[in-house]
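ok here's the first one, seq then struct tokens
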Amino acid sequence: MAADRDTGTRHADRLRQALEADIVTGVFKPGERLDEQRLADRFGVSRTPLREALAQLAANGLVTLQPRRGAFVVSLTFQEIVERFEMMAALEGMCGALAARRLVASDREALLNSLEACRREAADGDSDSYYQANEVFHQIIYRAARNAFLAEQSRQLQARLQPYRRLQLRAGRRIAASFAEHERIVAAILAGDAEGAERELRDHVLIQGDRLRDFFASLAHAGED
């Protein structure tokens, strides 16, 4: 029974990722209804893992579930996406500052191990694999901040921005740049430099300037695929 549940969860996670990509890249338009039967036929699955995937998307703020009507794509403007990145940058900056002041030995070891995992994935160059290591890296910093409420809020917003953070890693040389930023973040935290850790994490998360233009280009290119 446990194996069946694990298999169902994996199916739902794969469906969620596929649907996330379609929503972010414009395959499904804002306000569009997601037809369960068509999606089940498309992916060759029953409605059970599909409904679980839709529930995950609703929890991440990408769709809304309306009683007796189904799931609809949330209408987010690009400006609203940028505003969420700005909030994420503020939260992660706070986590970094607190982590630099409150780091314990177990978190130090976890942070270094996570940085090494990011190094390996960056060398491999696969954006999705790197994103998984990147997600763990950030969650270790949330934990190291030793503020349960701040960590909870950071994880929730991280989940909502997951498809967009995943997508921006496909732009140009973003993986290599991201890893270099990770190295600076870790150096500041290990040095106990709260101000530096906050600055490095805010800059790491914000999409602005050239990164903003790259993100626009990634959205447009993905929509053409």
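and now the second one, same deal
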Amino acid sequence: MLELLANAISELDEPLALELVKKGLEFGISPLDIVEECRNGLVSVGDRYSRGEYFLGDLILSSEIFSQIMDSLNPVIEPNEKKPFIGKIVFGTIEGDIHDIGKNLVGSLLRCYGFEVYDLGVDVSPDKFIMALTESGAPVLCLCTLLSPGFEAMKRTIQLVRLIERNTKIKILIGGLVNEKVREYTGADAWVDDARRGVDICLQWSQELAQN
């Protein structure tokens, strides 16, 4: 059933995807396993977009499908499977970029694992990230972009973050259309192009912060 769900998302079959989620919950499938399979489906959508099989409208549709799935899963996840609170994270898509598929997926997974996520949305200016970090006291910042011009905004944001740091260095993760060269250029601590890997890094950082 989970493989069928990933395929339904890949094919942008909204009615089937929602029905499979409903049936999955009825059969006792873990909501977190359902979210993970959604990730596989969204990765497939991204691959098809890269090959020119899908267009921007298809990416937007897949994001809407995932949002509806999460609306149905959140009431189930929160009381039963959400892990104890383990840390705060400020999250958003960088200034000049309005893509949110990857951001929404990672944000949902982080919440499932016990993080309090301050999602600032898309097209977020460096000043807004700084304000959110200052007000929330979050020790982790996640920046996303699927556009190469966004690298400059990432770099400006990270430079500002380094200026406001006090005794503890804020950990910064970048994701989307990024690689090791982009990480070095922007000054981030780590980069990911996979949602689950992003969650794993944030979990590792939270453990390190708890020990210090």
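notes on #2: The chain has a mean pLDDT of 88. The first strand starts at residue 87 and ends at 93.
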